[in-house]
Amino acid sequence: MARAISPRRKALVTVIAWTIGLAIFFPILWTAILSFKSEGNAIASPLTVLSTPFTFESYETVQERSNYFGHFWNSVVISLGSTLLALLVAIPAAWAMAFVPGKRTKDLLLWMLSTKMMPAVGVLVPIYLIFRDLGLLDTRTGLVVVLMLMNLPIVVWMLYTYFREIPGEILEAARMDGATLKDELIYVLTPMAVPGIASTLLLNIILAWNEAFWTLNLTAAKAAPLTAFIASYSSPEGLFYAKLSAASTLAIAPILILGWFSQKQLVRGLTFGAVK
Amino acid sequence: MGQITLKGVTKRFGEVEVIPPIDLHIKDGEFVVFVGPSGCGKSTLLRLIAGLEDVSEGVVEIDGREATQAAPAERGLAMVFQSYALYPHMSVKKNIAFPLKMAKLPAQEIEAKVQAAAKVLNLGNYLDRRPGQLSGGQRQRVAIGRAIVREPAAFLFDEPLSNLDAALRVNMRLEISELHQSLKTTMIYVTHDQVEAMTMADKIVVLQAGRIEQVGSPLELYRSPRNRFVAGFIGSPKMNFIEGAEAAKHGAQTIGIRPEHIKVSTSEGAWKGTVGVSEHLGSDTFLHVTTEHGVLNVRAGGEVDLHHGDTVFLSPDPAQLHRFDQQGWALT
C-alpha cells in the first residue's frame, strides 16, 4: 500500500520546497533584474528597483568596454580543455583503482582528495613562479593545465565510484573475448560508464567555468576568462551594480543554459548506481 | 582440439592456500563438471584455467602447449559467466560479434558467423535487441552464442544456470548437452548442483576445500565413492549414514546406504521405524523414517500409501551397502 499523504501536508511540503528553491535562485534572479536597470536605479532601495524602467544601457557599456566574446572563448577553451585532459588521465586511473586495486589504493584516493583540503593560496607562489619560468603566465595552456590538476581528484573520485558499479565479470568477459586493455577501455568500460562520465564532464566544466582563484591570479588580459571579466567590474573605480550585474549575467548565462539542457544527465549521473 | 592438463596447479591468496597442488587431465571433447559445495574452489580452478587468475605454482597445458602465463584471450578458450556478463550497451548481434571483431575478422565473415550462431541458438529474431530487453534464458543463449562463434578449443561454464528458474534450468541443461553432442568440443562446467553434474557430465571432478576428492564418470562416483564426502554429495536424496554398533557389525566406522537401496515393508525387516514426513511426488515417495539409528531417508514406490505415524520396517540391500573407515575412506 502506498503511504498516505494528507493534502495539507502535501501543500505544506510544496510551499517549503518552493521557498527554499526561490531563496537559492533569488541572487541569480536579482542579478539578472539589476542588469537591466540604469546605474542610478540599481542602487535604489530594493522595492523601488522593480518599478524603474528596463534598459539595455549596462549591456551596451559592457560590450563597449570589454571584449565579451574573447573572454567567453577563453572560458570555453579552458573549461573544456581542462575537463577533457582530466578525463584522459582519470579514466585509466579510475579503471586501475576500481578493477585492480592494490593495498594502497584507498590511501592513494584519500591522499588525492586531501590536496583539495589545502587552501589554493598555499601553493600560489610556487605555481606562479613555475608558470613565470615556463612562460605560462596569461596563457590558456597554463590555465588548462592548472585547472585540470585542481579538479583531477574530484574527477578520479567520481569516475572511481561509477566504475565500481560496473560488474567486473563484464570486463573479464571482454578479456576472454580477446580484448586488449585498450579495447577493454574503449569498447566496454567507457561506453558502459557513459552516464557517469557525462555527469563528471558536466560537473567539471561547471567547476572550471566558475573557477576564479587561479584564473584571476595567473592571467592578465590575453587568456582571461569570464571570471576575470566579471572581476574587472568590481574594481577600485567604485561599485557599478548594474554593469557588474550585466557582466555576471553574461558570464553565467552559457553555463546556466548548458546546465538546464543537461540536468537530466546531471541528475542521472549523480545518482548513478543508487538504484539498481 | 581441446586437451587441458593441470600439473601441480596451486593457488594462494597471500598466505592462504585455496587450491593445494592439483593434477588433472581433461581429454579432447570431454564434458567435465567441477562440482562441490560453495567455497570449494571450483570457480577459482576454472578461472585458473581461463587465465583470469594467476597460477601461484604449477603448469597449465592446453593442447600440449604450456599456457600458464598466457593471457586469457591467447588460450583459445571461451567462457560463459554466471551473470552472463553481456555487454549491456551493445545489441545481441554486436555482443556475439565482439570476439570476432577483437580477432579482426573481415566484416562479411563476422556477419556469416553471427547468423550461423543465431540460427543454432534460436536468436534470429532478437539480434537487434539489447540484453536488457531479453529474458534470462535468452540472455544465457546470447552468452553461449558469444562463446561458440570463436570456435574455441574448450568452453568454460561458470554456474551458468544458477540465475534461471527451475523449469528453464532443465531446458537449458538439455540445450547445453545437445550443443556438446553437436559441437563435440571440450566443455568444463562448474556447478554446485550435483543433479546438473550427474545429468550432463562425461566426467565429474568432486572438489572440497580446494582438493580433488574424486574424479570419475557419474555412475562410477555413484557406485563407488572413494570417501564419505563424495558418497554424501553425489546422489539425490543424500545417502544415509549410520555409525555405532550397526556399522561395527559390518566391520566399519560408518556405513552408508542410499534411499533407493532400502526396501520398505509394513510387516518385517531389519530396522523398525516410524514414518515422519512423507513426500508424495507421484513417481516416487520419499519417507523420512525415525529409527533407532537416526532419521533415515527412504525412497519408496510412487503409490505407497504410508503416512505420518505409520510403523514400517526397513531392509538395506546388502550389495549396495557402503562401508567407511575412521578417516571416512571407503572400505572395499
Can you offer a commentary on this structure?
The complex is a heterodimer of chains A (276) and B (332). Chain A has 276 residues and is mostly helical. Chain A has helices at 7-34, 39-42, 46-49, 57-65, 68-99, 105-114, 124-134, 140-164, 168-176, 181-192, 194-210, 213-218, 226-231, 241-261, 263-270. Chain A has 2 domains: 7-58, no CATH class; 66-232, MetI-like (MetI-like fold), CATH 1.10.3720. Chain A is globular, with a radius of gyration of 23 Å. In chain B, the strands form 4 sheets. Chain B has a 6-stranded mixed beta sheet, with helices on both faces. Chain B has a 5-stranded antiparallel beta sheet with strand order 13-17-14-15-16, with no helix packed on it. Chain B has a 4-stranded antiparallel beta sheet with strand order 2-1-4-5, covered by helices on one side. The interface between A and B is medium-sized, with 18 and 22 residues.
Rg of chain B: 23 Å
pLDDT average of chain B, as an integer? Answer: 92
Residue share in helices of chain A?
A: over 70%
Which regions of chain A have little confidence, pLDDT < 50, spanning 5+ residues?
none
CATH class of the largest domain in chain A: Mainly Alpha
CATH topology-level fold name of the largest domain in chain A: MetI-like fold
Global geometry of chain A: globular
* CATH architectural grouping of the largest domain in chain B: 3-Layer(aba) Sandwich
The major beta sheet of chain A can be summarized as:
none
Give the helices and strands of chain B as they follow along the chain. Answer: EEEHEEEHHHEHEHEEHHEHEEEEEEEE
Tell me which oligomeric state these chains represent. Answer: heterodimer
CATH class of the largest domain in chain B: Alpha Beta
State the separation between the terminal residues of chain B, measured CA to CA. Answer: 38 Å
Based on CA atoms alone, the radius of gyration of chain A comes out at 23 Å
Helix-strand layout with pairing:
The complex is a heterodimer of chains A (276) and B (332).
Chain A: H1 7-34, H2 39-42, H3 46-49, H4 57-65, H5 68-99, H6 105-114, H7 124-134, H8 140-164, H9 168-176, H10 181-192, H11 194-210, H12 213-218, H13 226-231, H14 241-261, H15 263-270
Helix pairs in contact in A: 1-14, 4-14, 5-8, 5-11, 8-11, 9-10, 11-14, 11-15
Chain B: E1 4-13, E2 16-26, E3 31-35, H1 42-50, E4 57-62, E5 65-66, E6 77-80, H2 92-102, H3 107-120, H4 136-148, E7 154-158, H5 166-183, E8 186-191, H6 194-200, E9 203-208, E10 211-216, H7 218-223, H8 228-233, E11 240-243, H9 245-249, E12 254-257, E13 262-265, E14 271-280, E15 284-291, E16 294-301, E17 311-316, E18 322-324, E19 330-331
Parallel strand pairs in B: 3-8, 3-9, 6-7, 7-8
Antiparallel strand pairs in B: 1-2, 1-4, 4-5, 9-10, 11-12, 12-18, 13-17, 14-15, 14-17, 15-16, 18-19
Helix pairs in contact in B: 2-3, 2-4
